[in-house]
Amino acid sequence: MLFRFITPILFFAAAGYVQHHNGQNSGSVIVFPFIDVIYPASKGDPQLMGQASIWVLVAMGVLTLLLQLRREWVYRQHQEES
Predict the structure, then answer these.
(1) What is the DSSP letter of 72?
(2) Maximum alpha-carbon separation in the chain
(3) Can you state the angle between helices 46-81 and 6-23, rounded to 10 degrees?
(4) pLDDT per residue over 59-71, tens digit each?
């Protein structure tokens, strides 16, 4: 059952890692590719691009989690009908 939720887990883990890395004072920031196209206000500001990257990863994690929960619910409804 846990393997069904591996994609949301990976997105949340990636968001956590990016948050941890960007929180360090190393001067480097991990950003989502083309984040300045998705969120134009962040162009030229690495810290804002890093924060937007975290929100993109969290949003993808929430989306995939909701889709998987819906699939699980439909599967259980189908099992009850049989």
Answers:
(1) H
(2) 58
(3) 160
(4) 999 999 999 999 9
| Calpha distance 79→77 (Å, rounded) | 5
Judged by DSSP in three states, 1 sits in coil
Amino acid letter, 54: I
CA distances (Å), 82 to each of 13, 20, 76, 78, in order? Answer: 37, 47, 10, 7
Report how far Cα 45 is from the mean position of its chain's Cα atoms: 21
φ, ψ of residue 11 in degrees (nearest 5): -65, -45
pLDDT tens per residue across span 8-46? 999 999 999 999 999 887 888 999 889 989 889 988 899
Q: What is the DSSP string of 24-66?
A: SSSS-----TTHHHHSGGGTT-HHHHHHHHHHHHHHHHHHHHH
